[in-house]
């Protein structure tokens, strides 16, 4: 029997045929110790086939779950597969797998999640001012809430250890999960840190957040943040009522 | 209070109650969801029958005309039911998400995803075709 693999790279992808093969092969080249699992979240293009032939495992939910549900599928796979670490890399090519080792080096004992931040190096990331302004509002709020600086709360380039995998396999936010996930982590007394990474402009496809939806995104995430703050017990602990039940 | 509106109220509430009970009897409506409906029907029927209570209620909350108190109560129940449904829909959304995730992981473990295989209607499994023909024979 081959030795058990303990690292999983989860790549959520929705209609990313233009970039998915490059992302998968870059992962396999730069991080050969990671198994690659593409979550094809109901794509209507060739994403699945291209990912398979690039050498990834592909999981296909029967309908589009949205980014939160897709990434949580990855957490479930990592949890049930007994993986020790999991990295989340976007399927659109904006994260560089060559920088994965920076995240891995920061995952020291006592750190449960390492987040790649595009704002720790000055002037690298060029995005519309409105987008950056929104991110900074979340960053400012979150930093107050969790009591440590968070510069890039919407980054989806994240490395998780076993505790974080367990937490998010059980419960992960629905629509725009990254910001809320930072707060969840804090509520569950898990620790995170950030490392500087570069992010590319999207290689193809379109962002899950179009400009028209930005306002909705802001309001929804703000609501989710304040609701999460008001939740006295965000934690589902052994013996609690099941969060999802038929009755 | 006009007797006509009382009669309309009684007929409406009785019809509502009868419909709910009939739906539950035919298993078209789960008891879990019927409870709030039944409560609404019973309260509305008793207010329509028992004018004294309706007049008291109207006086209590400052509604000039008692029939309006009946509408007011009915509207309150409508809001409550809608909220109840939103909760139910949220739960179903969560459940279907979990099911989809489980199914996707299971499918990956069992064999190639359906999209990786050539999709064609004529290679449906024979069992399915058989069932189809049985169904068309029955109709």
**How many strands in all of chain B?**
0
- How do the SSEs of chain B run, as a string of H and E? HHHHH
Distance between the termini of chain B: 55 Å
What is the radius of gyration of chain A? 17 Å
**Classification by helices and strands of chain B:** mainly alpha
Major sheet attributes of chain B:
none
Biggest pleated sheet of chain A: 7 strands, mixed
What distance lies between the first and last C-alpha atoms of chain A, to the nearest angstrom?
A: 44 Å
Rounded Rg of chain B: 25 Å
| Strand residues, percent of chain A | 5-15%
Q: What characteristic shape of chain B results from the CA principal axes?
A: elongated
How is this structure best described in words?
- The complex is a heterodimer of chains A (247) and B (139).
- In chain A, 38% of the residues lie in helices and 14% in strands.
- Chain A is α/β, with parallel strands linked by helices and 247 residues long.
- Chain A has a seven-stranded mixed β-sheet, sandwiched between helices.
- By secondary structure, chain B is mainly alpha-helical.
- Chain B is built from five helices and no strands.
- Chain B is elongated and about 70 Å long.
Short description:
The complex is a heterodimer of chains A (247) and B (139). Chain A is an alpha/beta fold and 247 residues long. Helix content of chain A is 38%, strand content 14%.
Supply the key terms.
heterodimer, A: 247 residues, alpha/beta, 7-stranded mixed β-sheet, 8 helices, 38% helix, B: mainly alpha
Secondary structure: elements and pairs:
The complex is a heterodimer of chains A (about 250) and B (about 140).
Chain A: E1 7-13, H1 20-30, E2 34-40, H2 47-53, E3 57-59, H3 66-80, E4 85-88, H4 100-106, E5 113-117, H5 129-146, E6 158-160, H6 162-170, H7 177-187, E7 192-196, H8 214-230
Parallel strand pairs in A: 1-2, 1-4, 2-3, 5-7
Antiparallel strand pairs in A: 4-6, 5-6
Helix pairs in contact in A: 3-6, 5-7, 5-8, 7-8
Chain B: H1 3-25, H2 31-49, H3 51-61, H4 66-110, H5 126-138
């Amino acid at each position: 029997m081959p030795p058990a693999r303990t690292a999983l790279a989860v790549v959520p992808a929705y209609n990313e045929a233009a970039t998915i093969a490059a992302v998968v092969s870059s992962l396999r080249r730069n991080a050969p110790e990671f198994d690659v699992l593409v979550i094809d979240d109901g794509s209507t293009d060739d994403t699945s086939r291209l990912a398979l032939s690039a050498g990834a495992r592909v999981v296909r939910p029967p309908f589009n779950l949205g980014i939160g549900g897709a990434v949580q599928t990855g957490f479930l796979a990592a949890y049930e597969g007994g993986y020790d670490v999991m990295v989340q890399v976007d399927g659109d090519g904006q994260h560089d797998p060559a920088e994965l080792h920076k995240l891995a080096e920061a995952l020291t004992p006592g750190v449960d999640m390492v987040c790649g931040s595009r704002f720790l190096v000055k002037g690298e990331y060029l995005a519309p001012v409105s987008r950056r302004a929104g991110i900074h509002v979340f960053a400012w709020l979150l930093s107050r809430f969790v009591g440590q600086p968070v510069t890039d709360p919407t980054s989806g380039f994240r490395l998780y250890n076993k505790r974080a995998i367990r937490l998010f396999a059980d419960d992960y936010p629905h629509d725009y999960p990254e910001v809320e996930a930072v707060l969840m982590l804090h509520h569950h007394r898990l620790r995170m840190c950030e490392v500087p990474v570069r992010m590319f402009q999207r290689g193809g496809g379109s962002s899950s957040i179009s400009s028209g939806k930005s306002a909705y995104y802001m309001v929804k995430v703000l609501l989710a943040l304040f609701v999460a703050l008001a939740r006295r017990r965000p934690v589902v602990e052994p013996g609690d009522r099941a969060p999802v039940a038929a009755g | 209070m006009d007797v006509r509106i009382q009669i309309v109220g009684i007929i409406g509430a009785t019809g509502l109650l009868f419909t709910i009970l009939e739906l539950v009897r035919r298993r078209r409506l789960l008891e879990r969801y019927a409870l709030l409906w039944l409560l609404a029907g019973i309260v509305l029927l008793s207010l329509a029958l028992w004018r004294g209570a309706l007049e008291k209620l109207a006086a209590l909350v400052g509604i000039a005309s008692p029939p309006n108190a009946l509408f007011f109560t009915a509207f309150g129940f409508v809001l409550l039911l809608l909220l109840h449904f939103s909760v139910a829909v949220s739960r179903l959304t969560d459940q279907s998400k979990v099911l989809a995730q489980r199914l996707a992981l299971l499918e990956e473990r069992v064999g190639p995803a359906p999209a990786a295989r050539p999709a064609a209607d004529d290679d449906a499994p024979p069992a399915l075709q058989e069932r189809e023909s049985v169904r068309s024979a029955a109709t």
